[in-house]
Known about the structure:
Layout: H1 10-33, H2 40-47, H3 51-57, H4 63-66, H5 70-80, H6 87-105, H7 107-119, H8 121-146, H9 153-175, H10 182-195
Helix pairs in contact: 1-2, 2-3, 5-6, 5-8, 6-7, 6-10, 7-8, 7-9, 8-9, 9-10
Amino acid sequence: MKGMNDRPGLRERKKAKTRAAIRKATYRLVAEQGWDAATTDRIAEAAEVSPSTVVRYFPVREDILLTDENDELLEARLRARPAAEEPLESLRAVVLEAVRAALDEEPEETRLRARLMVEIPAVRARLTETTATTGRRLARAIADRTGRDADGLEVRIFTAAVLGALREATVHWAEHGRTDDLVALLDRTVDTLKTGLTPSPPA
C-alpha cells in the first residue's frame, strides 16, 4: 500500500505536466486571439504536443478550461471538516478556500474562464455537466457525514442546490465586470441559501 507521503510516480508527474502545458497554451491563445482561434491543432502547436495528445487528455475542448484535479482535493477537504459541522458550512469552507486559492495563484485565468462562461454557450453548457460530476463526488462525502444514501433525494438536491447557486454567483460576477470580490459574493450566496429570501425594506 502506498504511504500517504509518497510522491506521484514519474508517469503521473509527466501526465500532470502535459495537462498543465495544454491548459497554459489554451489560456494564452484565448487571451490573445479569442476562443474560436484556440483550435485543437493550434493548442497542440503552442503546447508542443500532438493534436492526438490534446484530444487524449481533453476529449471535449471546453474541458481544458473547466476540469482540473481539484475535485479529489475538495472531497478530501470536505471529509476532513469537523464531524459536527453543518453540511452547508462545510461546503462553504472548502469551496471558498478553493476559489480563494485559484484567485491567488491564477487570477487572470480565473477571470478569463468566468468571462468565457458568459460569452460562449458551449462553455456554459459544459460547465453544467462538469458541475454535476463534481456534485456526485461531493454528495458521497456529504452522505457519509450525515449517515444518508449518496443517491438519496435529499442529498442530491442539497448538493446540487449549493453548487448550482455558487455557479450562478460566479456567472453574476462575470456578467458584472469581474471587479467585485468573488469570495465575498460566494459567501453571500451561502448566506442566502441558509436564511432564505426576505422582502427588501421599503425605499
